[in-house]
Amino acid sequence: xxxxxxxxxxxxxxxxxxxxxxxxxxxxxxxxxxxxxxxxxxxxxxxxxxxxxxxxxxxxxxxxxxxxxxxxxxxxxxxxxxxxxxxxxxxxxxxxxxxxxxxxxxxxxxxxxxxxxxxx
Length: 120
Known about the structure:
two-stranded antiparallel sheet; 120 residues; globular; two-stranded antiparallel ribbon; mainly beta
């Protein structure tokens, strides 16, 4: 879980990186970011940016799932985001996944969200 970064949605023009604010926890098996400590808008959407060693050919994802394990440190009464939950970029192709508007995650609770990776 080393060398991860968090970048804003408009990372092509906003070169901000939260790399130095990312903390490891649970013996280095998890990474965390407290957005309130960044000096940026609290409602700004940031995306995790994987380290180079985690990038490359992801063809093995095909006909599988992307599983995201996380804890929502927000509040239960916050409106869900309309932004992309997953954004994969490579070879001039963007693949995005947005949560259904009915999807909610309880605050301060471990959750898993699974996205099938296949053609329709």
